[in-house]
Fold this protein.
Amino acid sequence: MNDHADPVIAVRGLVKRFGPVTAVAGVDFDVQTGELFGFLGPNGAGKTTTVRMLTGVLEPSDGTATIQDHDIRTESLLSRAHLGVVPEEANVYLDLTVWRNLMLMAELHGVPRRQRVSEGERLLEALGLAERKLHKARTLSKGLRQRLMLCAALVTAPEILFLDEPTSGLDVASARLIRQIVRKLNDDDGLTVFLTTHNMDEAEKMCSRVAIIDQGRIVAIDTPERLRSAMRSSQYLEVALTGGQVGSPELERLPGTLRVSHEGDRVRLYGEQPGRLALEVARLAEAKGLEIAHLCTHKPSLEDVFLYFTGDRAQEVEQ
Amino acid sequence: MTAYTELAQTWRRQAHGALVIVKKNALLYYLKPPVLIFGVLFPVFFFLAFKMGRPIPAESIVPGMVAMALWFTASAVGPLVTPWERRAKTYERLISTPVSVRAILAGDVVSGLIFGACLSVVPILLGLALTDASIFGAAELAGGIVLGALSFAALGVLLAAPPASSPSNIMLLSNLVRLPLLFVSGVFLPIAQMPGWARWIAPISPLSYAGDMIRSGFGQPTYFPAWLSPIMLVAFTVLLFWGACAFHRRWRAKGL
């Protein structure tokens, strides 16, 4: 990723207030061309509000943002012309057929007739909706409606695709298909994707960079790998030894050990290089004639990073 | 690209967007059997209710019937389109497309205009077939129908702006506005024969001017000068549409 390239989305001090409540409290970030950018946060953190401002649904209270160099406030129509949007809740016209829904969205974006017809046919085929082309959207399941939403967003040939919790509440097959298609579009066609999600596994697998928003502020932004490595001190080696006892002071003296904790019959040795700690533990066990019953290393997941930055709030919100 | 061609292109795109909205409204809301039946039956029953048992020449009530049918059809669906779309969550999708709120509302107004103007043919044909009424000024009649439908549809779109939790609340508001205006617009009783206070109120209703133009089309005496009614209907359309745009922009994110 070229950090110096012109960003396709540039957000500076974006604020949204609803009366006395500040939903988004001045966020700054850039999204580069061809990036699959994850926007993570607990419920009520300001994810959807940010997306709604960027997609022209809400007027920002303060700050600026540009999409393809078009200001979302002063050149809203031009900025929206580049976008495809898939909201969390599939908001298709239930009384229109699958095909009419698709064509309506393409026509609103001014896609020429020949292009919208051929692209529409191709997308319905790719997303497994071709056989339901003339069915009313009302008859589709939630997963199929979400696929239709994705078709409707893609038929407009967008340069940036906004996906707001696109797989939330979907069956495994539909969620996987949507992820595969988005991934492919990003990899093969270089489509820029702005993905908001709760699903850390999804974000970790798909996103090249993520921002974590909490209480309307960006609390972390980087690649998943770098965010994880920022939490090196929370990496640990978990070990269970049998055939004798080793005291905590002895383990704490092992080179590279930051601290030690006990979890039942297992001991956790925290350190920045759990792999090297494993070697030290093996040497100690051999010297003491102990047997290693369990040994595994743990690196922080994106979920750990998320919980670290959002603290207890994410759990409170969950509860 | 010059500023002029850029502006022309933007207008062309927005006009196209408005036409797509007209098509969407026709498919989703106007070309539904209940709406069409309501649009056709409503004028017929009003006509019969007026005609039966009244010792007045039937042809004298035809312009009033046409104006009333136009009033109810052109402004019938407009107030409900946005609340329906808000409830179905499709409104959010619509306003995230590169079509301006103004173009979306223009599409809603044109939908109401086409629906109202087309269905006004029913009472006209009934009047011509069942009474001695005849058309004396086709231009006045057509002008009254088109300009009237335009201003009524703009009123309907303005009424759709408040962020109501349920479309039925908007329906209530719509009837609270439309029904009183109906009674002071000279549809039931010529404005000249109404009490003084009603004659003061009549000019604030676009229906008064549309009714006058339609009456002129059927060769009947009018209350306002012939030049005033089209000007007032255009003014009402501009004012109501401007208000609709302002309020829809202000409240567009409410209730999403």
